[in-house]
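Before surveying the methods themselves, it helps to consider a single example record, giving the amino acid sequence and backbone structure tokens:
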Amino acid sequence: MTLELSLAEARMLAINAQGLARTPKTSTMSDIQSVLPSLGAVQLDTISTLARSHELVHYARTQNASRSDVEQALWSDKSHTFEYWSHAACVLPVKMFPYFAMRRRGFLAKKGTWNHMPSSRTIREVKARLATSQATATELGGAKKGSDWWDWSETKEALEWLLAIGDVVCTQRVGWRRIYSLTSQSIPLSLRECPTFVKTLGIIGPSDDDCIRELLRDSIRTLGVGTLSDLTDVHRLNGWHTNRKHVTTLINELVDAGEFIPVQVAEWNEPAYAGIDWMNKLSSNQLSKDSTTTLLSPFDSLVWHRDRVSRLFNMDYRLEAYTPAAKRIYGYFAMPVLHRSSLVARVDPGREKNGKGTTLLAKTVTFETGTRTTVNKEVIQGTAQALIRAAGWVNAQDISIGTVQPASARTQLTKVLATLSRDSGKTS
């Protein structure tokens, strides 16, 4: 039986599942540490405007969580997290380690096509060195051969290969530098060996199908509701010992087991699935109908799947960081503004030092107008609130507004910012 969901209900499921339904007035370290387990994966990226993306993801879901708090929550205890290839390069709860055995087998099976295959000698030397102590790539002999970031040394190539196949793991960082260690010394034995695990291609772990099932469970838990393409995109399941038909078969098994519920979301062309736990909360009115007001990283998991963003929020969203500057429409790192369970605008942010301290730059503010030519007051109010909150987080004393689209909204945005900023001591 397929249940029908309104678009508003689908948004409610998605926002609650993503931990964006409400932001606590204060956040303890326990609150900050709970963000990663609730999301399943947090994407890592080198771009830093306001902050790095993993910090922005935590910022959107907590209050008063400093950048150092986020670093402590993710990497201070090496037994809690590890880094691996999920949606992209991600930090993951360590309990997820077994379920990427399927991917480790996939890398091993493609050994002949690995772009940076190191020599057997270098692999042995790296493993021998790590057997004595964990280390960064620099401490092991250097990460790069030249000035280009992709020009890896053979030591770095060995580390990345060993990480891909699971012999080496990263469970800590210092600054932005990975600390590598042998998996046997950093991942608990119970997550590496179990009577139900199988050994395939020399990789010990759950069977490929068991891995996919568990990653699908994690996907529906963190999405709330999604189509087949939504579910497979969370951990990028397509192409890893599987295909669309096979994943559908496994999803149908989860439907038969009562874990997934087939649903049809209004205005969606494809059938979808919802998690039983989320549907129970929806039917018993346990879900918040409103969201926090915040800027979202372009790498935030709420907006990972661009087609889903379009279906859920009617926003055609793309990251333009890799688009030539002259062809950008919204800006280098345009961040969606979440307000009242809608994506209402995009802000391309930055920071600038001045005589008084730091200014938060809103280089471009683009409101979502659709077919309208004006922007309503509620949307402007929400965008102003998101800017003030972001300024407070990065300790900016001022907010500077650049280009506003539509231009007619600039005066009102500036006025609202000035009004809201009086108590916080920020100007616009």
